[in-house]
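User: Could you check the structure of this?
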Amino acid sequence: MFLLVAETTGLFSLLMVPFFEGTFVHKIGMQFHHVAWDGLRFWDLVQPFFMFIVGVAMPYSLASRAKAGQSHKEITRHAFKRSFLLLLLGWALYCIGPGRIEFRFQDVLSQLSVTYLIAFLIMSMSVRTQLAISLALLALTEMIYRGFPIEGYNHPFVANENFGTWLDLQYGGADLNGHWVSFNAIPTTAHTIWGVLAGKLLMSRRTASQKLSILVAAGIIGLGAGYTLHPITPIIKRIATSSFVFASGGWTLLALAFSYWLIDMMKQKKWSLFFAVVGMNSLFIYLFCHIGGTQVVKNCVKPFSVALFSWTGELPSEIITSSITLLALWYLCYWMYKNKVFIKI
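Assistant: Sure, the predicted structure tokens are below.
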């Protein structure tokens, strides 16, 4: 979430300007931009991380509600309500940009509304059953894309010529420029399901070493499956191919394993507060930044940063402005954290 906030300040785009072309800075900047189509960069992992960590949090959240005395019916009602609100918020974000009502389903919040609900409905099932369902969703996606019969949209791994684009054209929500598709919610449900299983593992009575070993093993299996499938099914985030889901899922599991080892096992916790304050109000800061909040803050910062740092040159001054804006947005989250203000649905 901290990186998503940083993106809205324009900081990552500044690393890609012609001045840095051919340098290490430019290569780093590329990792903060999506691959055009086939391949995998760091930035392509952000959404899978987000959907996965929501899944990890679900067993903790639901256990807390049950402990507070809520019945299964009440918890289920809350899950459906939350799913609907996520869909509504994701849809609303698409209407703000063009200034007119448009229904799009490619936004991370809209996608999460589906993955969250499916993961919730099956989370009481056995581990094997949940794993089987996640793999079945990937297999179903693979079969639909490869076997789609309509001429012009029967090229599974070609931009705008696949089942996902055809489906979006049916309701007028196609993204023909970015090539993102609504159907991504189905295969990426696996990320949230795997997150739920990881969360249950962390809540279990297994030893810390056992938990770490399982997470690492699962991550390696995911990476192995994803990159092994790559010659057969390209790794394409924009249509969430099965190889992409496996590979990105593997990275998320390894990232969680590393965090668990560092924070829970090695007790290195203090540094994490810097990022935790943003994560504690993730929904608020995501919406705030995407409805123009970042630009408002940046407009307030820029006159002062330019006055103080214009002597460094235009590009350094822009980088400093974006960095100060990011710190200001972080401080907003920190202030909310210190005053126990948490926006949740």
